[in-house]
Each structure stands twice: as C-alpha cells, then as structure tokens.
Design goal:
The complex is a heterodimer. In chain A, helix 3 packs across helix 8 (82-92), helix 3 (29-37) crosses helix 19 (467-476) and helix 5 (55-61) packs antiparallel against helix 8. By secondary structure, chain A is an alpha/beta fold. Chain B is of the alpha/beta class. Chain B has a single domain, classed as Rossmann fold, CATH 3.40.50.970. Helices cover 30% and strands 19% of the residues of chain B. Chain B has helices at residues 38-52, 68-71, 90-100, 112-116, 120-129, 173-179, 193-205, 231-237, 287-299, 317-321, 333-336, 340-350, and strands at 60-64, 81-84, 105-111, 133-139, 142-143, 149-150, 184-189, 209-215, 238-240, 242-247, 262-266, 272-277, 303-310. In chain B, helix 6 (173-179) runs antiparallel to helix 9. The chains are: A alpha/beta, B alpha/beta. At the A-B interface, helix 7 and helix 20 of A face helix 1 and helix 8 of B.
Chain lengths: 592, 351
C-alpha cells in the first residue's frame, strides 16, 4: 500500500502551489494576486518584497521560473502573467516607506562587509540591517544595483525603479562605499569585519578566440556583450554601425541586439550556433526582439573574422546543416556567449579553497559559506550566472548564515520552513477566495510603438497592464494555495466529490502495492509524473483510499461543496519562510 | 445548491466514445440535491453507462415524476428529451411515449415514494405491459423532500433521525416485480459503481422493462446509526449474489468462459451479459430460484444485490400489441389515419 501523504509538514502542499515552489525565493504568488484583485496594491507590493525584495525590478526583468510552472499553463496552454502582475502592484502602490523594516537605534555591535552592491549583497543588507548590524558595502561603480543597473537596458528597466528599490535598503543605514574596488580580500578581512559576503557577480564576458579576433582594424569593432552594455549605460558608447552581428542567443544577446537597434544598428542580426529549440533566451525576450525586426540566424558556427584592407568587413560561419561556409558582412560584432566569474583579488593563501578544475571557490550549497569561517558567497559570484531572483534567494540564505555565525551558532542547523492552514469556508457555498473558473485567455502586454521606442534608449517598451487587463488576469489564477484538505476519518465514501470533479482528479481506489499501478487506476490516468498524488489514510467503511492527482486540479472547491461531512475542506496554505531577521517565521501580513 | 457552475475545463486525457463524445458531454445541469446524496452517484453512474454504450443523447428520453429522485433527470444528458410528469405517473407517461415512439431509449427515474406509494399501481402495470425502458428506483427509505418521514420501503425497526422505529412492513420492489412477471430485475447500491454501471448498461439493452432498485442513501435524513438504508449499513449487509459483466455487441469476447459458475445471456441486440454466481444454487435465469434467494437474504437482514433475474425471451409491449416495427411518429398521416372507408370496413368486422 502506498504510504499516506504527509500533509502535516509543508512539502506536499507547497509543491501544489507550482509558482511558489518554482520560485527560488518562494514568493507567495496566489496571495499577492488576490491582493491585487482587491485593489490592495501596497499590501501586495509588501508581501512580494518580503521574499523577493525588488518587486518593481523583478516585475519587469525576472526570468519568471514561476510561469512555466504555473498550473494554468497545463489547463489552457498559457500561464497567468504572474511577472507583469507583480509590476502592476509596484506601479500602483502608494508610499511604502512607513511599512518598510527599519534599523534599530541600538546597534548589535557586529560589522559586516558586502562586496558589490548588486541584488545578492543588497538582500543581505536588507535582512541584516534590521538586526542592528553595521553593514558596509563596497561598490566599484558610482551607483548601486550591479548587473541590474549596468547590464539591463533602460528600455526594459527604468532607472527610477532601480533607484527607488535599491534606495529602500541603502536608506536603512547601509554604508555604501562607491567607486571603491576591493583589490585584496585579505586586506579587507584584516580590517576586522565579523563576516564578509562576496556578491561581486560574474563580471567577465566570455571571449571568442578565433582567427582575426585580435587583428588591427577588427579589435575595436568586436565588443564583449556585458561590457558593451555597461559602456552604453555610462554613455561611453552612443552609437553603433548599421550592420551588427550578435554572437550568442541568450538573454544578454537579446539585450545587446535590442540596444544595438536603438543605437543605429538598423541591420542587427543575432547568430546562433544551434537551432531554435536550444536557444537559451527566454521565449518572451525572443518575441520582443522579433517584434523590433531583429533577424535570428540559426545553425551558424563562427569560424573567423574577415578583415579586408585593415577593416572588419564580415564574419565567416560554418553552416552546420549543410556543412559549408558563408560570410555574413558586418561592421561591428558583439559577443554574448556567456559570463565567467573571476577572483584575481582573492589571495589563494588566506584559507579560501578553490576548485582545482574551474578555479572557483568551494561554496556550501545550503549555507553559502566558503571554506574560510566568516566568508560567504552569493549571487553569480557563488556558482556562475543565474538570474536576479536566485541572487535574492542566495542573499536571504547567506544572511541567515551570517547571523548564525555572528551568534556562534552552527551553520548547518538551519531554521526550517513552516506552514499555516486556514479554512476558507465562509458559509454554505461561500469561500474566502474567488473559486469560479475564469476562461479568459492570457492578457497581452501593450508595447510602445516602434518609432517611439527607437527614439531614445530610455523609452520603456512595456506599458504595463490596463486596469481591465489586470482585473481579468488576476482572475485567471487558480488559487492553488487554497488546498483541498482531506480528513479521511470523516469520509462516508458517497462518491460525491469524485462525481463532481470537473477534471476527474479524484478517485476512491483500492489499496494497491505501488504508486505506478495506482496512477493507472485513477478516474483519469495520472500521466504527469512530475506532479504528486495525494494518498489518504484508509477510509473508515471500506478501507479503500482517497487518491487525488494534483496535476490539473482547478481548486474550484466543488469537492468540498459537495462533501456532506466536510471531509474535504478548502484550506489556505501559507508557507512560513525563515529570514535572518525572523528565523521562526512569525511575520504578519502588513495591513495598510 | 452549489454556488458556481462546473468549470468547462476537462482532463486532457479524457477519452472519447465511438460517437466522439467524452463522458462530460453526457452531463447535465449542476445538481441541487444535498451534498453527498446517493442520487448524484446514480446520476454519475448513468452518465458513465450511457457514455460507454455510445448512446446518442438525442435518441434518449429521460422520464420522471416527483421527488428528489425525479429531479435528477435534469442532471445528466442535457441534450436528451425529457418529461417530468405528475407524482407517480412516470410509468404511464413513458408507456404513452414508448407507444408513440419506440425508437428512443427510455430512462425512467423514480424513487421509493414515487413508485412504491403514490405510483405503485402505475409501476405494477408498466411491469405487466413490459414497456421497453430502464426503470431506476432511487431507494432511500424516506421522504426526503418532506423532511424524512418513513417511506413504503422502510424496514421494520429502522429508525427515523429522531429515533422513532418504523412498524409497518416494507414493500420490496424486487420481490414485487418478480411476482408480476418482470423480465429484468436487479438491485444495486449507489456507493458501488463497479457493480451498478454494468447493471445499468445491461438494463438499457434489455428488451422490456428493466427494473433496477438502487439503495441510494439520504445523507440528510437517513444516514444515521438506526437506519437500514445508510451508507454504512448497506456496506455491512450487502451480499452480492451475482456479478454481472456486460459485453456490448461489437466488443470481442476474449477467452470463452468455460467456468461452469458463469451464465451467459445474449441480449436481443446481440450484446452479452455474463454472470458469475457467488451464491451456491442461485440461478439468475430462474424466477422461482431468484425469488427464493432474495427472500432468504431479506430474512437474514441481508441486502441481496446484483443482477437478480433476467429473461430475454419475454415479449415487450409492442410485441404483445403487434404494432408496426416503425415508430408511430415516423408514419405518415395517411398511414396513421387511413380515412373513413378504412374505419367503416373495420367497424364492419365487429358487426
């Protein structure tokens, strides 16, 4: 007999909330969407901020691991536009400053140094400042934000949004030392910090060492993507020649090609080594580039730069499908084929062990600690390039470790996740959430006209959702956090729930030996093995079991409405996440 | 009552039947019965049975009278014909409908009040006429709509929700039907779809009146400890005396059944019902043996379930009346009403 599902600990119910489970920071998506639905934008923003710290920034730039996971995508093919709804909350909120955490006037006497003012370090600061830590941030540039500022073009992320959200943290009392590059970690440690966090990112763009790369006349027309984006940001580069090739097809390549298009690269092409199914760029970024007339050339592997009379005139590629070569003429080339970490400023003899093969620091996956006590890594600096939301989660976890370390507590004894379950039953057929299925298709984001967006680099392309779109889109959410909670001892096996379920996800099944057999015995076969089954303890009358395939449950609550004994109830699941400033997770939602 | 409509979303793995419908295409309006009502399970079983039989919904008629049970015709096959008659008069209305249009599949849904009290005479005569129909009795032993008084099927000693015991003997529709010459009678339980669905399918294929008495607990008034029609009591006292397996016509019958405990009955359309006797000496094709068995079970306070008796050789109403094979509705006016000359020649015969 398969073991009854454990619903007393958070794992099963957390996994049902696909979006929250997929989000590295476990943002409580359904709850913040409901707050938007109620027009409570400020509360929605604050709920977001608790876990992801930068709702306005992420609402425009997040790689959205939540959306491919969204259950709605398995229902009608298109997930809820979670990311852009986050932006709605950020756009429409009132002043949140009165509700932000504040640093206490009595300090705890501990000093922490953070290297780099990017999302990872800022998250650490956000979590440690309210505990009374003195936080010093070293930033080599003149502004905070790191990659979010220098590598994400302004037409995707307006500067004002970035300033506001980085400001919320810095204004709590962080001591940011701008224009201060750390050149020796040993020297920094010697300054007597209680802990050091390295969140310096992965700032080195990968090279493409093929013939012609370093030739005179070519060198100055070949750029490294992230460095070039940085130069554009600082105003060092204001234009580019008409014919531009972008090598690589990740999200940086998308930013490069769209920036190039705005700086005069009217014939910008992206060249990919492989075919479309292997593209690393997110589908929506590819779509946006396509909308701006950027051509993407597939299956072209770079061979050499073609130089004639001391000028770059093109690039030669091997066409992997036809095994011949072709020269694509161009004036400029931007390389966007990946990023590396580089730590020339970390001495190899101060106790931080590096991996022999990749020359990367050895970092513990859970605590983010290096092999030297008191030195922690996070963000891209830890294991190479990921997304902003990962950096934020690294920051939260590292902050917990730093706080434990500062108190002399063991790092591996980490605070655990908890949960709250509260019934949403309000009356006979009334629930504290909107359980009626809304069949509307996913709302389409409005974009600025092409002429308008090419007029200046800072014109934001996405205009945000209209109030009508917002109202519809939030109702597409299935409220997966309102869980179908089953109490086996109350069940009289009347079949009412099984009969009413619109998506055939319930079955009263015989006790069979294993889960694979069970999956084929259900009302509709449970073929999506990535989605768990809920298995109840034996039922009182026949000793059979109640089985629920979580795959496409609509959380409509009809099983609970048709249950005569309230064996089924719709209970709202809230994951309680530990943070450095609140390890037992007793945070209460802010009421504005 | 349910506050929302059933979402139109379907499981992507839902199969289609031979006429291209999914099971959900056989559903009807949302039920307004009490949550957990056995009748809703019977409805779900009918949905599945009709889907499995590839029954075209527009070629079926759902007939009912008055009562909780009779409301359920609204909850399945929304594209089918339907008639909601006066209390207890469903059998007569169905007889009339069947007389006029023998081409439809008739599904009569009734209850213990509608069929065993006010409509008892109607039930008896429909059995005698052998109207070709599936006759379902949702039997819960109480009058649910009028707040739980004992019905004519309540057992002696069974108590009301307030604790008062019933003293009058029950009418057992199965025994009654056997004495009236019914050609198909079964008893099942709303909480056992594995048993119920093959029985409903066999009943829908039977050439005559197929009576299916279904213990269908009333969760609101008759699902307590003193009840003999509760989910718990029925599960504890259910004795399945034959297991029926319905094999539709075009399905291949794999591995011919050589087991001597298996009876095979071929229905008039060529489909097959196979019985496995689970009781020694029981013969579902022998009326006297069936009667004796059900009666013996009753005396032991057991609820005999399964396909209890079947006689595929009986003549239905149309055969007895020697009507034309074409449904009357499909005849031309001239054929139906051949005129005064024809009437006069008929009258001449009786002079």
């Amino acid at each position: 007999m398969p073991r009854a599902t454990d619903v007393a600990s958070p794992h099963h119910y957390h996994k049902v909330v696909d979006c929250q489970y997929a989000c590295p920071a476990h943002t409580n998506v359904p709850e913040y969407l409901r707050l938007i639905a109620q027009g409570r934008y400020t509360e929605s923003y604050l709920l977001n901020r608790e876990s992801n710290v930068f709702p306005g920034i992420l609402g425009r730039t997040c790689d959205r691991p939540c959306e491919p996971a969204c259950r709605r995508g398995r229902i009608d093919g298109k997930p809820v536009a979670i990311c852009r709804l986050k932006r709605v909350a950020a756009d429409l909120r009132n002043d949140v400053t009165p509700y932000l955490p504040k640093a206490p006037s009595i300090r705890n006497g501990k000093r922490v140094a953070l290297i780099g003012a990017g999302p990872a370090s800022l998250t650490v600061a956000n979590d440690l400042l309210p505990l009374g830590y003195d936080v010093v941030i070293y930033e080599k540039h003149a502004r905070a934000g790191g990659l979010m500022r220098f590598n994400i073009p302004a037409f995707r992320l307006p500067e004002r949004v970035l300033d506001e959200e980085t400001g919320y943290i810095i204004d709590m009392g962080a001591d940011v030392r701008y224009n201060t590059e750390v050149t020796s970690l040993g020297a920094l440690i010697d300054e007597g910090y209680d802990a050091v966090f390295i969140g310096s990112g992965a700032p080195k763009g990968k090279e493409l060492d093929i013939p012609g790369r370093w030739d005179d006349g070519a060198r100055e027309h070949i750029h490294i993507g992230i460095e070039w984006l940085g130069s554009v940001h600082f105003g060092h580069i204001e234009k580019i020649a008409p014919r531009v090739l972008i090598i690589g097809v990740g999200n940086t390549a998308m930013d490069c090609c769209r920036t190039s298009r705005r700086l005069g690269g009217t014939h910008t092409k992206v060249v990919a080594r492989r075919s479309r199914q292997f593209f690393k760029a997110s589908p929506w970024e590819l779509e946006d580039a396509g909308e701006e007339g950027i051509e993407i050339v597939e299956n072209h592997s770079p061979k050499r730069f073609v130089i004639e009379n001391g000028t770059l005139v093109g690039m030669e590629f091997e066409r992997t499908e036809t095994n011949d070569t072709v020269i694509i003429p161009c004036d400029d080339v931007i390389l966007a084929i990946g990023q590396d970490n580089a730590f020339p400023w970390i001495e190899r003899d101060i106790g931080i062990e590096f991996d022999a093969k990749w020359d990367m620091p050895i970092v513990d996956k859970a605590s983010f600690a290096s092999t030297k006590p008191g030195v922690f890594f996070g963000g891209d600096a830890a294991w190479g390039p990921q997304n902003i939301i990962w950096a934020v989660e690294h920051g939260h976890q590292a902050a917990i470790s730093i706080h434990q370390y500062a108190q002399g507590l063991p790092l591996d004894d980490r605070p655990t996740q908890g949960m709250n379950l509260t019934s949403t039953k309000m009356g006979m057929h009334s629930w504290a959430y909107s359980n009626d299925f809304n069949p509307s298709p996913r709302s389409t984001m409005l974009h600025a006209e092409l002429v308008e967006r090419f007029s200046a680099i800072g014109v934001e392309v996405e205009l945000g959702f209209t109030p009508e779109q917002t109202a519809t889109e939030v109702e597409r959410c299935l409220n997966c956090d309102v869980e179908t909670h089953f109490e086996a001892s109350l069940c009289i096996e009347c079949d009412a729930c099984v009969d009413v379920c619109p998506v055939s996800c319930l079955t009263i099944a015989p006790n069979v030996a294993d889960e694979v057999d069970l999956r084929m015995l259900l009302s509709a076969p449970a073929q999506n093995a990535t989605q768990d089954l809920y298995v109840s303890p034996s039922l009182p009358q026949t000793k059979r079991i109640m089985v629920k395939d979580e795959d496409i449950c609509l959380h409509c609550g009809l099983c609970a409405e048709r249950c005569p004994t309230a064996a089924w109830d719709m209970k709202k699941f809230s994951l309680v996440l530990p943070y450095a400033f609140n390890v037992d997770g007793t945070l209460e939602m802010v009421s504005v | 009552m349910t506050s929302i409509a059933k979402p139109p979303v379907r499981h992507p793995g839902l199969r289609k039947n031979a006429i291209g419908f999914t099971q959900r295409d056989y559903e009807g309006a949302m039920s307004t019965l009490c949550a957990g009502c056995g009748h809703d399970s019977v409805t779900a079983a009918l949905v599945q049975a009709c889907w499995e039989l590839d029954l075209p919904p527009h070629r079926a008629a759902k007939m009912s009278g008055i009562g909780c049970s009779s409301k359920t015709t609204a909850y399945f096959m929304k594209q089918s014909h339907g008639f909601n008659s006066v209390h207890g008069r469903m059998p007569s209305v169905t007889s009339g409908a069947n007389a006029a249009n023998r081409g439809l599949t008739y599904i009569g849904i009734s209850g213990d009040g509608d069929s065993l009290s006010i409509g008892l005479g109607q039930l008896c005569h429909a059995i005698r006429r052998n109207v070709r129909m599936l006759y379902v009795i949702d039997n819960n032993g109480v009058y649910g709509l009028t707040k739980g008084q004992f019905s004519a099927s309540a057992d002696i000693g069974s108590t009301s929700k307030k604790g008062e015991a019933n003293v009058q003997p029950p009418i057992d529709p199965v025994l009654l039907a056997l004495t009236l010459g019914v050609t198909f009678v079964a008893r099942s339980f709303s909480g056992d779809k594995a048993q119920l669905i093959p029985i409903l399918k066999a009943g829908l294929s039977h050439n005559g009146l197929a009576l299916v008495d279904i213990i269908s607990p009333c969760v609101t008034f008759n699902d307590h400890d003193g009840s003999t029609k509760s989910y718990k009591f029925t599960r504890e006292h259910d004795v399945e005396i034959s297991t029926a397996d319905f094999v539709p016509l075009r399905h291949e019958i794999r591995a011919p059944e050589t087991d001597s405990a298996v009876n095979v009955v071929t229905m008039h359309d060529g489909s097959v019902v196979r019985f496995r006797k689970t009781h020694e000496g029981y013969n579902p094709t022998d009326r006297e043996s069936a009667y004796a068995h059900v009666r013996a079970c009753q005396q032991r306070h057991e609820v005999a379930t399964g396909l209890l008796f079947i006689d595929e050789s009986g003549s239905d109403m149309h055969a007895v009346s020697r009507t034309v094979p074409t449904p009357l509705v499909d005849l031309t006016h001239h054929e139906l009403c051949p005129g005064n000359a024809a009437l006069q020649s008929l009258m001449e015969k009786y002079r």
